[in-house]
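Protein modeling request. Please complete all fields; requests missing the sequence field cannot be processed.
Requester role: graduate student
Desired output: 3D structure, token encoding
Chains: 1
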Amino acid sequence: MISRHKDFLREALVVLLLWLLVFAFTWRIGLAGRVLAGGDIFTYFYPYWAEATRAIRSGRLPLWNPFLFMGVPFLANSQVGFLYPLNWPLYLLFPAQRSVHLTIVLHLCLAALHAYVWGRKSLELGRIGAWTVGALFALGGYLGAQVEHVNQLQGLVWFPLMLTLYDQASNLERRISTRTIAFLGLIGVLGLVLLAGHTQTAFISLAGLSIYGVGPALWRALREGDWQPVMRRTVLVVVAAVIGVAVAGIQFVPTWELARHSVRAQGLPFNERVSFSLSPLYVGRALLPQLGHPVPPDHIEHVAYVGISGLALAVGGVVTAVSHRREKGPAGSELPRSNSLALLFLTFVGLFFALGFYNPLYLLLARYAPGFAHFRVPARWLVLTVVGIAAFAGRALQRVWDGEHPGGRTVLIVALSMAIVVLWGVGGLGWGEGRDLIAVEVAAWVGTTAAVAGLLWVAGRAPRWVSLGLLTLLIVELYLASTALPHSRATAPQAFTSLRPALAHLLSSEPGDDGPKDRFLSMSDTTFDPGDLSLIEVIFGPQLSADQLYEFVVAAKQKEIVSPNLPLAFGVPAADGYDGGVLPLERYVTLQRLLLPSEDVSIDGRLRENLDTIPEGRWLSLFNVRHLITDKLRDAWIDDVFYDLQHGARLSEGEGAQVAYVPRFEATSLGLMSHLEGAGDLPDGAPVGTVSIGFDGGVIRSFELRAGEQVLREAAGQEETEDLTTRLRWAEPRKPLTVTVQATLPEGRWIVRGMSLIDERTGSFQSLVVSDRGRFRLVHSGDVKIYENLDVLPRAFVVPESRVVRDDRAALKALQDSAFDPASQVVLQPEGDSCSTREVEQASTSDSAADSGEAASFEVTIIDYRPERMVVETDLDEPGYLVLSETWYPGWRATVDGDRVDVCRADLLFRAVALEPGQHRVVFAFRPFSQALGALVSVIGLALLVFIPRRTVRYLS
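Delivered output (957 residues):
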């Protein structure tokens, strides 16, 4: 008893040392309280965790997310991981960014623990060998590079424990009760991996488990004809997977429903399926530690180093495994050859699939095989390779510790293999990447290889000291390499917590009494410099490195443009968003074609990155977009006057545009920037258009502009025409009330770029917003500009007319019709049993207003608005349709005056209900059947745990 107690204390001490090492590697985010301000963690995971934290603290089950993509499911999006049990205490106790950091550190500790346990139980290594496995898996480059993908990290760390539990459950020499407990644990772990939310990780983990568990038995069966072990091991994997999916049904079923409406419903575009493949030229670099400079963002998925020491030890472990028919464990126990074969399969299959686009078999799988066709980033298969390398390295170090000299032949193979890898890394970068190598980095690779080979050569003389030397070298390597990973650039917490002016303006914009804030759309990028850059450098420069300060500045710019998912973090509704998983919805992507050419539509959302010009005003109004965020990079200063060039007007003969908002500013002239397009044959002096300026008392001053004088036209063969700035003056200082431009040129177009009122007495000015795509006014000007859409439709409104179409293509075509006005007409689509064709057509027969000729009166008031519930009161003179610019999705129910009604899909993406004349109270509630069904499946899965595992184990004994 005392001996067992001492053994437990020794094991606990070894694990504690591993955890202390994890804390040492991640102290910036784990202890110093800094934040990760780059990649997906800042703009994707922080926002989702912020919303989850708000929901769980308010006692709300967050089924719906109204802040992104104009409304999408929240809990059904598995990427959130809301139902992952290890997240709940963090939601309750810490702010979002702190929770994310703590879960990273926690799961790296779990990775180390699980790999250590696998090394002890399955690989039958001593403590130093198992410790090496845990250190390499948890602190190697693969997991370190994935800290920005929180749910992926959470799922990956369970993989070594899955292998351990599978080995215990499939070992016929164990007691049935022990095997049953292990099998139950395996099912539970599979359920946790699914609840963590990264479906590709679950897919790779199951595939890896099958390769590890079934692969060696299949190999033997093909050679010896004994298929019984194959069947037994396959049944264990299949039963565990089926019940694990059932246990996670509360997440899996809603996610499955969401996937059916997702952009991934038919699989990803083929080029997406093989994106971020590992180039053969980059394989060497992927396996080598990064030293001296950060890992490039486009290669963050290609990091798989375990250090030169770890890789060299792994090569030695592979050589021994191949050359020995059976291997001896530290206590003299024999390890089956199939165990080494399983590790070889993991190592090489992971690398084989990681090649993706460069692998003909993967191309075939990506085109036709479920799973492969629904995920991108084949490089993520490298996790199997890393696990295999860590196991072989642990074995090799354990042998050295136990006094087994690797032998001169093995040392020579190790040295030659590492030389090949280093040359591969150097050559791959030179040929494939075209960037310079750092001499110190290459020297470190070569020097470390020589040191490892030297230590292995003398291992027989002092095996314990050599082992400790190798382990020390390994830890130093891993730590130095970790400084190139994202968590080493963690910056000050204010990068996330502080407000920026544009964000503060959106937060302070007036909402309805109980209704939602209107949406915004960002069109700015992050190429501008913050106006307070010098202040940021003064405050944070002394405490941050150059890289960390750079991350802070980028984060400040991301918050200034409030993109892509930061609106969710701060509770500001957006028309845009970003998601690389089961979102956005397929119909949201289709709707983007109203704003973008088909070739520019992104399947991830991200309108901001693809919009070059202000969208047509009717679409902004339909989307309930009140505010537009743009930068000033296209604007101009001419003669000390600022011209806002974001909007503009493209006018043909007879077309005009009016400045929607003219501020009260006393001016002596109007500055005008414009040029002609397609008017090369227009003679100099020909009238181009007029500018009419209205003043108090009904006074209007008109100016006629002529080609070649106030407006330049393109020269022959010239593709673009420069803008000409002219000043239109009046006699005495006055305050203009209206400014209108009208084109009169007989051919081509008059392109009005910008206007500014100028007081030439003082040099002061006031820029104006002229647009032929809507009515806008500038409401904020700082690092970015914010415009208000003056014609925005409210979140809920009534229209008198409808048009019924049968499919999405017809709906899109109807919307693109120039005669379509979203304020007076709605395009309806029948959707299964919801909003049946008969009811839609019956309702559409009374679409017109009364014959009296008077315009119908529609009053709409949102009296209660919550993510999963919306209450609207209406008063109609005539029949009409209540339209919500909120996403239609199965599970949204509606009642009118307490009676259940169908929710129609409107204008391709939104919701609508038909209303009769009179006063009505309309209640929308989100109660998805898939969530209840998923909960029932989970209950069934838990019930199966009582009966199936033990019977399965008994049956296979």
